[in-house]
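In the previous lecture we treated proteins in isolation. Real proteins rarely work alone, and many bind small molecules. This record shows how such a complex is specified: first the sequence, then the SMILES for pyridoxal-5'-phosphate.
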Amino acid sequence: MTVQIPIIRPTLPPFDEVEGALREVWASGMLTVGQNGRDLEAEFAARCDAPHAVSMSSCTSGLILLVQAMNLPEGGEVIVPAFTFAATAHAVVWNRLTPVFADCKRSDLTLDVESTRNRMTENTVAIMATTIFGVPPDMDELIALAEEAGIPLILDSAQALGSTYKGKTMGSFGVGEVFSMSPTKVATACEAGVITTRDPELAARLKRSRDYGKAPDGQDMEFVGLSARLSEFHAIVARATLRHLDEYIAHRLAGIEEYKKRLDGLPGISFVGPGPDRTTSCNYMVIRVGAGAAMPRNDLYGALAERGIQTKKYFFPALHQQTAFAPMHDGASLPEAESAAAECLAVPLYGHISEETIDTVCQAIRDILGANP
Ligand SMILES: Cc1ncc(COP(=O)(O)O)c(C=O)c1O
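The predicted 3D structure, ligand included, written as tokens:
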């Protein structure tokens, strides 16, 4: 069955909002790290209430370079959530560090602070935490834990653009936060990453890191960086979607409420969302297909696919069970992450999704689970 309702449809502003700027860049020949890139950084920093923002080609390259900038001792252990997207742990391994997987909380699936504490040893050199589906982790507790241990807290904020924690927008926590503007995110640049930080020296270093590690003279290589600059075309799209961020989030939030209304009360089906002290960017609408549901998550996924409705087993497998990372895992039991990986199903959600699409998806879910009359 071909996909009729995809899980993701990027929401882009009207083309005339970017056309003039794209033409100007085309004519100017200034294709990368130009005025649009600088404007994006200023606008992104303002939106995230952070003094500095540094654009990157992707969140993953940003994470790799942010971890590199911490100068952590080779082989040191970095606590990462077992329930996150793989790029969080990629950044650790690319830096010749060892990921140590910690469990997630059942309530909102973010990194469990107690599990993090239990997994720390004298070799722990950093903690990485992730905003999950738009829900920020327990920032106060994680900051306290990192401070107590004297190690950096690094935030994978790929899905956090527009999320808030205790009334504060995400972007100014930890040593730095790395956001993604890939096509699956609430505001996209087609592809991009942005690092926010309060540390001006770190921001300056990251600008050199994304440009091979060049010294300010532009010739000598101070250290080994990456080629991870953001093109002006991407910066133009990023600036345009950023301007619409609140509108996209509001639309997604309304979509999530529609889903909840239509699926409420289905046996075994529950919803994943933030507690009262934080808000979500609504990057994903995730339902949990638990005990008591008419069929397991995987069967529901397959049955929806047969009807042309694309969903995502997300995040699955849990990180410590993925081929790339299983050999690095010490075998500790991580029951909540494993259960979440087995039960969570992301359903279609866009910044412009129609009520009709949501209704079709919900009718199909109810039908498959035998809940329609
Ligand atoms: C939690 C998380 N981290 C990192 C990434 C990687 O982002 P990018 O594709 O911009 O490298 C993603 C993208 O889906 C993500 O969801």
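Summary for your notes: The two ends are 25 Å apart (CA to CA). The chain has a mean pLDDT of 97.
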